[in-house]
Amino acid sequence: MTATTDAALEQLPTGPGVDGTDLPYWEGLRSGVLTLPRCRACGTWRSLGRVLCPECWAFETDWEAVPARGRIFSWARSQRAFISELDVPVPYVTALVELESAPVRVLGILLDASGDASGADPAIGDTVTGVIVQPANAEYPVLRWQSAAAS
């Protein structure tokens, strides 16, 4: 990467996209709850970033609070910080978590595996709970995951 690209990555903000369609998610985190989109017409849960229902193609969306608890579906260890607002030491583990209460997968940093010098890897299927954290240099809080045994 070039110095220009590195500087640009460090300035990427966490928070709502420019179109504002995910603002309820970020405002939910500010209020201490995980909120996810659900189709008003047919009740289908949507992944973040989907403005159109994959089942009935409706645009109308309700945002519902869901428990931040699930199982690790996939994970990756990063050796480089991509966004300064993540506020975590490298290396860190990003986990894709399949929620227990809704058929949705949510991405976040796995707290207990970040910078783990022992090299211990999380296991697919491990139960985790969400923790909402306010990074020191970010406008919006972020969702992090931790082992259910640690919570």
Estimated radius of gyration: 16 Å
Strand elements, count: 7
Give the biggest sheet.
5 strands, mixed, barrel
Kindly estimate the percentage of residues that lie in beta strands according to DSSP: 25-35%
Task: Tell me briefly what this model is.
With 151 residues, this protein is mostly beta strands.
Verbal overview:
With 151 residues, this protein is mostly beta strands. The chain has one domain (3-147). It is 11% helix and 32% strand. The chain contains 2 helices and 7 strands, in the order ααβββββββ. It has helices at 3-10, 23-30; strands at residues 34-39, 61-66, 69-78, 92-99, 105-110, 127-133, 142-147. Strands 3-4-5-7-6 form a 5-stranded mixed beta barrel. Strands 1-2 form a two-stranded antiparallel sheet. Strand 6 (127-133) and strand 7 form a beta hairpin. The protein is globular, with a radius of gyration of 16 Å. The termini are far apart.
What are the salient characteristics of this protein?
11% helix; two-stranded antiparallel ribbon; mainly beta; 5-stranded mixed barrel; 7 strands; single chain; 151 residues; disordered N terminus; 2 helices
